[in-house]
Amino acid sequence: MFKINENYMRLQGSYLFSTIAKKVSAYSEANPDANIIRLGIGDVTQPIAPSIIKAMHSAVDEMADAETFHGYAPDLGYDFLRSAIAAEYKSRGCDISANDIFVSDGAKCDSGNIQEIFSADSRIAVCDPVYPVYVDSNVMAGRSGEWDPEKGCYKNIIYMPCTEENAFAPEFPKEDPDVIYLCYPNNPTGAAITKPALQEWVDYANRIGAVILYDAAYEAYITEENVPHSIYECEDAKTCAIEIRSFSKNAGFTGVRLGFTVVPAELKSDGVALRDLWARRHGTKYNGAPYIIQKAGAAVFSPEGQAEIKAQVGYYMNNAKYIYNGLKEAGYTVYGGVNAPYIWLKTPDQMTSWDFFDYLLEELNIVGTPGSGFGAAGEGFFRLTAFGTFEKTKEAIDRITKH
Ligand code: MLT
Residue of the nearest CA to atom 5 in ligand 1? Predict the structure, then answer.
């Protein structure tokens, strides 16, 4: 008789955003006239910018001609895209070789898959609250240990609480981890990290021999000067950090799928380069992101593409400002929204995160994301995304503040 991967039995419920989608669709079926505004999952609403669409169209046309047709993509990515990404790093003062850039179908897959190149007994450290993919992928791989229902956490995972008291900036854990997940600008709290503070993490990781898995999916939303766009802006980061980036949030590729991961050749364990392991995994399990999509990705780095996506990011950040200011004026305690497209608010009247979710959905027909879905330390908080249209965002905030 076949046996299942028992680790899956340790997963708590379904994936957060699937649970929310099911709840919303049940409510919507029962209340077909409800005008629901979705500010839950961080999915973009603005169309892909014109110069990027143009590049995509022209790549589609190339596929229609035997002379310019492309079959399997190189499994690590086309040189034209890897070089464009390397040039973007260079413009920020980061010396990243195109050879160390691995193009993929998105940051979610990379952040879930990257744990495969570490030993099964690696101790992982995560922020709490945290993007659930980091934890769940390690549960599936058997690194989490048992679930502790009282504490609401896994016994073998090191949690680094991000609370109001520490301004949502985690402290170094008491036990030394092997692998540290950091996401800045942060999902879900919207907090940012300064360059000196990130340098401390890099120095710490180099000192204890840990790897930082740095998720920089939201770097395009940084507005403040002293906030780094890449961990490689820090000294000696190449010997301790892997960086994961996305085209979803900066260029609207959520439905198109494109991302990349940087694994510097300098990052080694006992002389073995992690870069080579990730290349081996990519080659075995992945056939490369589609040519059409990589062409569109390269257009993101063109001067027109850069100007257009800057305007789009500005549009979403205007939403963030509206949410932040509107809620604050109405007496809510709010965080984030300055260097990130997420607003992290304290639930009113000490409501639990899920009670507030139900209240917003049922009374005001607004969907958000309960903070406790991101971890025990998220209880009593709630996340709203700035990725809606301005009109819907405004209406949602007006509904909340006028109720
Ligand atoms: C989120 O809402 O946290 C993100 O959109 C999820 C994702 O990027 O996978």
Answer: 42
